[in-house]
Amino acid sequence: MINHRISHMNHQNQKSLTLNPFHKIINNRIIQKCHQNSQLYNSKNDQEQNIENDLLYKNKDNQLQNNLNGYLINEDSQEQNQDNNQIFTENQQPNNKDANRSINTQDKDEIVIKIRREIQENTMINQEYHPQKIDSINNTLSSFKSKPEPIPKPEPEPILQPEHILQPEPIPKSEPIPKPEPILPPEPILPPEPILPPEPNPQPEPNPQPETIPVPDPLEFIQRIIAETSKKRKVADEFQYYIRRFQDKLELKKHYGLTLKTSAELYKNCNAFREVRGDGNCFYTSFGFQFLSILLFEYSLDQFNDFFNKIRQIELPMKIFVPGTELKIDDKEIEKYLLDEFQRRLTKLKLIEDTNQREEQFRTEFAAYEKQSKEIDGLLYGLSTIFFRNYSNYVVDFSDAKDAVYDRENLLNWEVECNSNEVVIAELAKQLNTFVQLIFIENSNNIVIREYGINKNHKIILLIKPGHYNIGYFQQINETENRQDNSQENQVQIEIPQNINQPQHSNDINILQPVNRINELDTLKHIIAETSQNRQIQDEFKYYIRRFQDKLELRKHYGLTLKTSAELYKNCNAFREVRGDGNCFYTSFGFQFLSILLFEYSQDQFNDFFNKIRQIELPMKIFVPGTDLKIDDKELEKYLLNEFQRRMTKLKLIEDINQREEQFRTEFAAYEKQSEEIDGLLYGLSTIFFRNYSNYVVDFSDAKDAVYDRENLLNWEVECNSNEVVIAELAKQLNTFVQLIFIENSNNIVIREYGINKNHKIILLIKPGHYNIGYFQSENNLNFNDQQPQNQNEQLLLNNQQQLKEKQEYQQEEENQY
């Protein structure tokens, strides 16, 4: 390409030089430099075949060629004008001609020098952009760095006669310029690189990143240990929970088979109990659950903080070994994480303001043997067991009788009991400043009580029958109740009148005798087995009612904006999910009204309610669409109503409100049999009761004709589409205040109210197709110490609050942007 340009340039120069011989010198210099450029280009092209260099030279050559062509064109026009006047001026002013030649020579020298400078700049640019190739072409470039020789002054040419100035001769074809031999550099020439087509704006390839090795979650170690031990055993679901329901003195006596005399002696120290799972961890389950209850419900926040500060100061390990396997936790980083996680979970529980909610959440988390939700993953039991095994191993060193713990290694062995546990218990009571009663139930006629520690403000009761520990309780009762208990000690059930329809005084308490319960309840069991139990869903969604959830979870569950949630919180700031079947309205309404019966009604009001139900002879019919399953027999219906009243009356008679509340929730939520008392049928009895009562009260409504699908009221798992008429009449007949909160979308809620008695309030959350249970709690701030944080753990608590506040602000900011 360059040779072609040089040939073209020679052709143009010959045309101009025929008119002025002086141009020969100028053009020779220009052509010489162009040859030098060509020589440099050819040399580099032969050596490296570098496409980048070619592009650089191409751009520069084009620039030089354009400059040179412009110059020559300008010269042609000037020389044409000079030729027209040359004949007239040459003879008259020869001296002026010489002067002009001198001026022209000077101008051309400046132009040649300028072009030479540009060529040098071109070379410097090449060096700058190709520094790696400088060494290979130094010799070649050196030939162009020599000082340019001065242009010799041309000799005066003879004056041409006018006749010689004729039309210019035709321009002969230029001969091809021979290619100069390349100047080889001293270094050996590298083999030419392949010429690749240029890519537009090539991007550098990213460096390959090393493959990320996933770090196992430390909690997975506990999950695996539990999965390979307790979860692997085939036991009935009712025995899989790590702690079970609260049981009163009668059940305590029955469970241990005690005589009247022995039970009376036991009741002086323990009159209720809770079973724990029968594995080798039962001591740590029984002791741990009770001490954590002290932390959560008896310790102040400062005491809670101090306890964990001491644990951190001693750097308590969290080791555990599973005998006969390779499963273990014996790594300082993992142990530190597990201790932090244990403290985090307890701190979160401690920060729950409502005591009842905190108690329910704690029991649910501790008892869980599998994942039920994000919050309840079935691991609190494992963390607690590991903690108290390691703490027991730690405190033994402070005991004077530590040498008596001959099987001390078992303290850190999963599901292995230490046979010398009394030394451990004594030292735990001392170090934790508690009072521990260890009650040995040797047989039905004999118990032995041993006591450790002196601080009776924080009491732990351990019931032990060789091989197994349970949790004991002692509740104060007045003398009148105690005399009644003694007089009825041999009677498990209270006698009632034979004629159940006979009017009774409102102070009478009716507990119906269960007659042939198994056979009579089979139909209801069959209905539940063929419907809700037949669906394959995760266990966490099988419960008919689930755990209590606060305002943040309420907002998240329904996906509400900040503005909408603030409006909702004025009427409802907590909730409880119910199972998503066609009975969800009767579950939500029924659970709340039964709570009113059990916790707000007096005993007289409770009795009056069931007396009225008997007076109207409320039926208990139910039909399962698409099947032959139904309950449509008066005798069976009468029995089911009696059974429903019997169960509710038994709950009402539980003296301790917390125990009554726990028992009621557990029975109502159960989807299968957990024990003799909890058979998973209270939900079914309640649903049938409120479906029939709804069908009964509709007749009192002025808008009863608007209930166009009334037959659905008695159809199992089928919702009535005209429920508002039913709700309005239920609120009126039951003397309650019902708030029906429609959550239409994230930006809008609609609240409708029925009834006037706000002393007994029911909140129903409805999102088209499903009802949930609503709650409204007054906003009470935690009773925090006004002083500045005194220790690391208190700072951790405040940090958790700050993170929660930041999370709320972040959510608000997102919504504002939206």
TrEMBL record:
Keyword Endoplasmic reticulum: no
GO molecular function ontology, one term from the record: ubiquitin binding
Domain of life: Eukaryota
GO biological process, one term: proteolysis
Domain OTU: 271-475, 573-777
Catalytic activity: Thiol-dependent hydrolysis of ester, thioester, amide, peptide and isopeptide bonds formed by the C-terminal Gly of ubiquitin (a 76-residue protein attached to proteins as an intracellular targeting signal)
Keywords from the named record: Hydrolase, Protease, Thiol protease, Ubl conjugation pathway
Stretches the record annotates as Disordered: 140-214
EC number(s) reported in the record: 3.4.19.12
Biased composition (Pro residues): 169-214
SUPFAM superfamilies from the UniProt entry: Cysteine proteinases
Biased composition (Basic and acidic residues): 146-156
Broad enzyme group: hydrolase
InterPro entries: OTU_dom, Papain-like_cys_pep_sf, Peptidase_C65_otubain, Peptidase_C65_otubain_sub1, Peptidase_C65_otubain_sub2
Listed name of the protein: ubiquitinyl hydrolase 1
Record lineage: Eukaryota, Sar, Alveolata, Ciliophora, Intramacronucleata
